């Protein structure tokens, strides 16, 4: 989607670990407004309507008090990477009846029953075993779940997600799991300060989605593209993101190294 307009030429992954902590509802309002303004600016650069981009605030590692402040500032969906952490927070926040939970990290089959119980969305589907486990547990709960298929667009061996060339066959299997409402594709880009290398990951996911959408089985929706996080969401929006998952730019830096969440993040330094 490059034209003569000037797109983002650097990521903000060098900012990593340096976002100030949000410590009041006011801080959350301020940070949310700042992110929304950047989303709007990115949309404007490429002629998109900001209404077509959903901001998913990511609250992993943050204490319940922070999540409650985010809620008070208007957040009604929160993203969490680890099923157990998310489940514990969901239990602790039952009083916030309209708060929904999106699980955005890798799932093992033995944790499927947790996710089936409370999550409204799961963004990291990348195996049929997990699809089967979720389907069984969701049927038992009488629930459905919005899902995104995670794609490994960076080629890093240790990253979760399906290789791009396996996604078409995977999607063909998913109509067998009616409790899973497939919404689109998700990816984690390369973690790099070089915007062009990061952008390539987003371009790849969008191209894959555009191609697969034409042959998608009935009932398999591929409208959504979940891509972009604090350091690169503006680039992702320029390349078509419909969901951006933003943690640190809203909540503040995390103390926990990213290697805990993404095996390939190494020591968390930009490459
Ligand atoms: C933590 C996380 C994010 C958000 O990262 P930030 O740097 O906090 O914006 C996005 N996606 C996934 C899968 C995550 O685990």
Describe the model.
The chain has 271 residues and is α/β, with parallel strands linked by helices. Helix content is 37%, strand content 14%. The protein has one domain: TIM Barrel (Alpha-Beta Barrel). It has 9 helices and 8 strands. Helix 4 links the parallel strand 3 and strand 4. Pyridoxal-5'-phosphate (PLP) is lined by residues 58, 60, 81, 104-105, 188, 229-231, 245-249, 261. Keywords: Pyridoxal phosphate. It comes from Acidovorax temperans. Belongs to the pyridoxal phosphate-binding protein YggS/PROSC family.
CATH architecture: Alpha-Beta Barrel
The quaternary state of the protein chains shown equals single chain
Write down the CATH class.
Answer: Alpha Beta
Poorly predicted tracts of residues: 266-271
Q: Supply Rg.
A: 18 Å
- Biggest beta-sheet profile: 6 strands, parallel
Shape estimate:
globular
Number of strands: 8
Under CATH, the topology can be stated as TIM Barrel
Instruction: Give the count of helical stretches.
Output: 9
Structural class: alpha/beta
- What portion of the residues fall into strands of 2 or more residues? 5-15%
> Could you tell me which ligands this complex binds, including any ions or cofactors?
pyridoxal-5'-phosphate
The neighbouring-strand order within the major sheet is: 2-3-4-5-6-7
> Percent range for helical residues?
25-40%
The helix/strand order is HEHEHEHEHEHEHEHEH
Q: How many distinct domains?
A: 1
InterPro entries: Ala_racemase_N, PLP-binding_barrel, PyrdxlP_homeostasis
Modified residues (N6-(pyridoxal phosphate)lysine): 60
Function: Pyridoxal 5'-phosphate (PLP)-binding protein, which is involved in PLP homeostasis.
Cofactor: pyridoxal 5'-phosphate
